[in-house]
User: Which sequence fits this backbone?
């Protein structure tokens, strides 16, 4: 007697048995009324399911489900989206062109603003450092001065702020705005109360025209000036009077007059 | 290309039928079929396996349906009132499964059993193809079908048949 599995009975009911097995199952069913009843039930289930849901397959297919129409629609959408992409390319091109043309208008003002922002940011980052506040300590100020002068490609002395109560902690080299040589030097000073001020120096901007600006930025005071040789931003959080005294001293020591005199900066 | 569209067209009635049975909502079902066809048309050549498109289309449809079900789980499902068969149609003949009862029973099946059962019974798709469409091994398909049918039998109140003795 062949052994018939439940899966075979199911497959039989589902019409999925190969010919030879089907005959075997039929023989088995004729001898086993229980199994025959089981198969009959399966068939009734299938019939009922087809009665329930079958009619949906005989309904007229709505136009929106016609593959040819859908394909045409998709084709049109593709063309439209290519059109939109092309239009976007043109618009971006126009925008870039206009932006390029308007460049002098846009850039005229913010060069100083960017430098001040950089200076204040560098100040905020490094005054918070203790052991790594500077790259080269102030005790080797001659080396510091030579090094930074070489890197900025301009002579940079270390201003003396002893009269204002500040001594040089040291300095570091930083990346800077491309318009101002791409590099910046930061000098850090500290007083007895551990207040710190930083001086952010870059090579001159391309136009090299003198400019002065006093800005309050992100909780710090910044005094910025530019001349034909350098830009300089003094940053600190001191009271205004003290800030002005420090900035004034830095300014007078780093202005062109000093360079013209050829006098080495003190340090 | 035209040959391909013809093949799609030939499958549309079956796709609608299956989608309707899955969703119990005529509009949702046709949306599903439309999504499925659009996907098939825009992906042809890229992803289409060689061979008949039917299995491929059913796979796409089923995936779309599963995704939609996952989304609608969060929103609550919409069932088309017209698609719910009239209740209280008593079995006209003894042993006949009452249709309304069966429809409700199918609704209560776990989705993976419902998918499998409808593919095989409603669509008459061969086991191997159905297992491929659902993405499961043949044995898993068979056990899902078995569980689905047993559950329907209990849910529709058909007396449980004595157990088959010869198994193995």
Assistant:
């Amino acid at each position: 007697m062949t052994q018939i599995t439940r899966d075979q009975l199911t497959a039989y009911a589902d019409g999925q048995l190969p010919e030879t097995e089907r005959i075997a199952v039929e023989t088995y069913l004729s001898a086993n009324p229980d199994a025959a009843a089981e198969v009959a039930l399966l068939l009734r289930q299938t019939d009922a399911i087809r009665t329930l849901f079958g009619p949906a397959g005989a309904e007229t297919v709505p136009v929106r489900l016609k593959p040819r129409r859908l394909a045409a629609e998709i084709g049109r959408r593709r063309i439209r989206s290519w059109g939109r992409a092309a239009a976007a390319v043109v618009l971006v091109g126009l925008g870039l062109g206009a932006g390029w043309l308007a460049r002098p208008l846009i850039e005229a003002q913010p060069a100083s603003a960017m430098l001040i922002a950089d200076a204040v940011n560098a100040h905020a980052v490094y005054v918070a450092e203790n052991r790594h506040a500077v790259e080269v300590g102030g005790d080797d100020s001659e080396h510091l001065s030579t090094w930074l002068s070489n890197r900025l490609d301009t002579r940079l002395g270390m201003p003396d702020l002893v009269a204002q109560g500040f001594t040089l902690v040291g300095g570091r080299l930083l990346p800077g705005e491309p318009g101002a040589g791409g590099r910046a030097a930061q000098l850090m000073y500290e007083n007895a109360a551990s207040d710190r001020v930083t001086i952010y120096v870059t090579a001159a901007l391309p136009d090299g025209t003198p400019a002065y600006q006093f800005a309050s930025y992100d909780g710090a005071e910044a005094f910025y000036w530019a001349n034909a040789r350098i830009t300089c931003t003094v940053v600190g959080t001191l009271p205004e009077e003290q800030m002005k005294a420090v900035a004034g001293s830095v300014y007078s020591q780093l202005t062109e007059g000093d360079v013209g005199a050829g006098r080495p900066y003190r340090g | 290309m035209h040959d391909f569209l013809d093949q799609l067209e030939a499958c549309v009635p079956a796709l609608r039928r299956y989608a309707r049975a899955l969703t119990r909502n005529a509009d949702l079902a046709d949306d599903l079929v439309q999504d499925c066809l659009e996907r098939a048309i825009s992906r042809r050549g890229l992803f289409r396996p060689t061979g008949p498109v039917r299995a491929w289309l059913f796979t796409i449809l089923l995936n779309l349906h599963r995704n939609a079900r996952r989304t609608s789980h969060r929103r609550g499902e919409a069932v088309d009132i017209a698609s719910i068969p009239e209740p209280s149609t008593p079995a006209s003949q003894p042993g006949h499964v009452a249709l309304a009862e069966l429809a409700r029973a199918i609704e209560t099946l776990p989705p993976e059993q419902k998918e499998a059962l409808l593919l095989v019974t409603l669509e008459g798709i061969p086991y191997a193809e159905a297992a491929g469409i659902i993405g499961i091994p043949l044995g898993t398909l068979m056990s899902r079908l078995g569980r689905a049918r047993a559950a329907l039998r209990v849910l529709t109140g058909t007396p449980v048949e004595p157990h088959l003795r010869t198994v193995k």
The domain at 110-261 of chain A is CATH 3.30.200.100 (Phosphorylase Kinase; domain 1). The first strand of chain A starts at residue 136 and ends at 137. Residues 258-267 of chain A have pLDDT under 50 and may be disordered. The radius of gyration of chain A is 42 Å.
